[in-house]
Amino acid sequence: MKFSDVVIIGGGPAGMSAALAAAEAGVRVTMMDRFSEPGGQLVKQTHRFFGSEHERAGTRGIEIVEILRKQIEENPLIEVKKNTDVLGIYSDRVITFEEDHVYGRMTAGKIIIATGASEKMLQFENNDLPGVYGAGAVQTLMNVYGIQPGQRVLMIGAGNIGLIVSYQLLQAGAQVAAIVEAAPRIGGYKVHASKVRRFGVPIYTKTTIKAALGDHRVTGAVLADMDDKFQIIPGTEREIEVDTICIAVGLAPLSELLVHSGAEMHYVPQLGGFVPVRDEYLETTAPGVYVAGDVSCIEEATAAMLEGSIAGVSAAIASGMNRPELIAKREEFVEQLAILRSGAAGKKIRDGLKLIARREQN
Amino acid sequence: MTGTLESTGIASREMFEKLLPSPERRARGPYIVMECYEEIPCNPCSTSCPFHAVHMDNINDLPQCDIDKCTGCGSCVGRCPGLACFVIDETVGDGKVKITFPYEMVPLPAVGDQVDALGRDGEVVGKAEIVRVLSTEKLDHTSIITMLVDKELLYDARNIRCE
Ligand SMILES: Cc1cc2nc3c(=O)[nH]c(=O)nc-3n(C[C@H](O)[C@H](O)[C@H](O)COP(=O)(O)OP(=O)(O)OC[C@H]3O[C@@H](n4cnc5c(N)ncnc54)[C@H](O)[C@@H]3O)c2cc1C
Ligand code: SF4
Ligand code: SF4
Asked: Is A93 left (phi over 0), alpha (psi -120 to 50) or beta?
């Protein structure tokens, strides 16, 4: 069976950073992604990124991908398997996958799982009508294929994704009829909210969608007010005319492969769902299996890239590249990540991580 | 308008006015206003300033601008991913002010155009004359536009409608 020092599953910002960090440390890397090009979420992010300029904030996501792809292409130690869907992880780090529809197997010294996240769905009447989309699909249609998904859109969720995708819909020439948010506060960054408000998009907090209207496709929606316990207040229902409903109510870690690997998992709402117990260097309780990016906790690309770098160097160090300068480099990444998470916006993540940190003794 | 920035996405006049520099500085020339009211892990405003006017100890801090170092050059306007940086010039006289803001929509206005000035909620608040449009390759699709509006619109005017 084919062997690679480090196999990375998922070629988003976390996976790409992990591949570069491990290969730069001198080990052989195989990175697998189910899509035809690596990039993950970043390939649809046409907006300038938040985060640290050091991790390329202020640059558009699509451009960050280009920079990372080029570095990966130029690195002879990295093999990229595209169109490769990883199916399972067995004991002794045997990985099974489908590459261009052909079944394959290989083994790895270390595995880094960087599979990202999947969108959460929302339950309401008629949510299976054509015209109801997830925010990821809307972004892919617009920004990858250049297709405008609808003329008049209702956005559900005022987190960063709901706000950013609303802005991108405006850029694509669509109208955004409203953004509704069940919580009393806008969850995303206020600068993003102000940006869409300036174009006349109303944001209704304490509001939800009760039903989609239409026979064969969406022609409208029923909105309703919510009380403090997130229950619909009867009698507040009203209709809004839209042809598209876009759901942006959050992401959940795509953690099935971590479960396969035998890593100990816990449900931590602050981190987005089922996530693995891990140590400071992102090794899970399954020996030699590391985690990085949104699958470790739903956060953002800067954090995903730093986690990728930490997991990549750590996997290399554990593979015998135990050099002082690599250990120093890893400490630097760990410190940058701690600084990034040190503010008010990082509190939820810090609280969640406390619950899931791998303790040395017990 | 009722509600707060947290529930509406609109910063109040009081919040904005707290960001304004001293009257002397305002009378001297263009200055930056960073309408970034929430601590978020973000720093391109400070790293992009060619005059090192913007200070941040921790990436989560609010940007602190040494307004005497700020020349109003507008570099940060095109780099801020929150589109939250505006250059204001109150020295033009004639009851007018210039507001420089980032713009990422098509079509772009042309210099000399008379357009609707939009408020923080997207409603028309008055008229604006476009006096500068900067759209270079380096700016990478975030154009920097300067509009001339009545000075009463200092707080309100934050966007334009181009038809
Ligand atoms: C609308 C939106 C706006 C955002 N804006 C920002 C922002 O401004 N700043 C910021 O820092 N972050 C932002 N983010 C977040 C950022 O995009 C993510 O945090 C980041 O992409 C996570 O990286 P990742 O590598 O962990 O996962 P992903 O980017 O999701 O990559 C995971 C990869 O794994 C692959 N994969 C999954 N399962 C398998 C399998 N079984 N086999 C093979 N391959 C598999 C997928 O195909 C994918 O390519 C935004 C996200 C969204 C949705
Ligand atoms: S306007 Fe120019 S000088 Fe002033 S803070 Fe912005 S980049 Fe710096
Ligand atoms: S770049 Fe913009 S959004 Fe980011 S901290 Fe500076 S002013 Fe705020």
From this structure: left
Nearest CA in chain A to B62: A343
- Please give the tally of structural domains in chain A: 2
pTM for this entry = 0.90
Last residue of a domain, one of A247, A271, A305: A247
Q: Which domain holds residue A218?
A: 121-247
Model pLDDT for residues A141-172, shown as the tens digit of each residue = 998 899 999 999 999 999 999 999 999 999 99
A97 and A9 housed in the same domain: yes
Q: What is the pLDDT of residues A88-103, one digit of tens each?
A: 999 889 999 999 999 9
Question: Would A361 be classed as within a structural domain?
Answer: no
Asked if the interface predicted TM-score (ipTM) of this complex is over 0.90, the answer is yes
The ligand 3 site (C-beta within 6 Å) comprises A 191; B 34, 36, 42-45, 63, 80-82, 84-85
A221/B145 Cα distance (integer angstroms) = 37
Query: B78: Cβ below 6 Å to ligand 2?
Result: no
What are the helix and strand counts (H, E) for chain A? 9, 19
Which tokens belong to A81? Answer: 């398997």
The last residue of one of the domains, among A184, A216, A247, is: A247
CA–CA separation, A21 vs B102, rounded Å?
Answer: 36
Pocket of ligand 2 contains residue B51 by CB under 6 Å: yes
Q: Are B133 and B162 in contact (CB under 8 A)?
A: no
